[in-house]
UniProtKB/TrEMBL annotation:
Family label: Belongs to the glycosyl hydrolase 3 family.
Keywords of this entry: Hydrolase
Name listed for the protein in its UniProt record: beta-glucosidase
Gene: Bglm
Stored SMART domains: Fn3_like (SM01217)
Domain Fibronectin type III-like: 66-133
Reactions that this protein is recorded to catalyse: Hydrolysis of terminal, non-reducing beta-D-glucosyl residues with release of beta-D-glucose
PANTHER family noted in UniProt: BETA-GLUCOSIDASE
Presence of the UniProt keyword Thylakoid in the record: no
InterPro entries documented for this protein: Cellulose_deg_GH3, Fn3-like, Glyco_hydro_3_C_sf, Ig-like_fold
């Protein structure tokens, strides 16, 4: 095998065609609502980690579990990157009518791109939080929030951080 490109071979690199049952698709016995997505800091240095918090509310009548998923999208990159990349997930049990506040860390190395070496690049990124992939056509009874953050500095190899 000589062609190692993932373009057209995995859901992360499909063009505009979405998979029939994307990662995270499933049924639930209740409904959830996401709110208050906070990224801290909204502008961070190249080698810094991003803190994320989001509130998950069970708006249904039954106790249930939700798989909260965080996806990262590069707005501009010097090399081809996935449309979005799963960077964190957590299964959370939430009682009916209750809410929980969740905290995550998105590490600097999760923003690295492969350009003959793992590199960190400055730029604008979008983080998605929800019970499914962003832009999912086959809807699950959940939603996806998004927020942008910026990374400052000069591009450099990940190993130098």
């Amino acid at each position: 095998m000589e062609n190692y490109t993932m373009e057209g071979r995995t859901y992360r690199y499909y063009g505009q065609e979405a998979p029939l049952y994307p990662f995270g698709y499933g049924l639930s016995y209740t409904t959830f609502r996401y709110r208050d997505l906070v990224l801290s800091p909204p502008v961070l240095p190249l080698c810094a980690n991003l803190s994320v918090s989001v509130v998950l509310e069970n708006t249904g009548l039954r106790d249930s579990e939700e798989v909260v998923q965080l996806y990262l999208r590069w707005e501009q990159s010097s090399v081809p990157v996935p449309r979005w990349q799963l960077v964190a997930f957590r299964r959370v049990a939430v009682l009916a009518g209750r809410e929980v506040k969740l905290f995550f860390q998105v590490l600097a190395e999760q923003r690295a791109v492969w350009a003959q070496d793992w590199r960190l690049e400055p730029g604008t990124f979008t983080l998605f939080a929800g019970g499914q992939q962003p832009g999912q056509k086959t809807r699950a009874p959940s939603e996806v929030l998004s927020a942008r953050f910026s990374v400052t500095g000069t591009a450099r190899p990940l190993r130098t951080c």
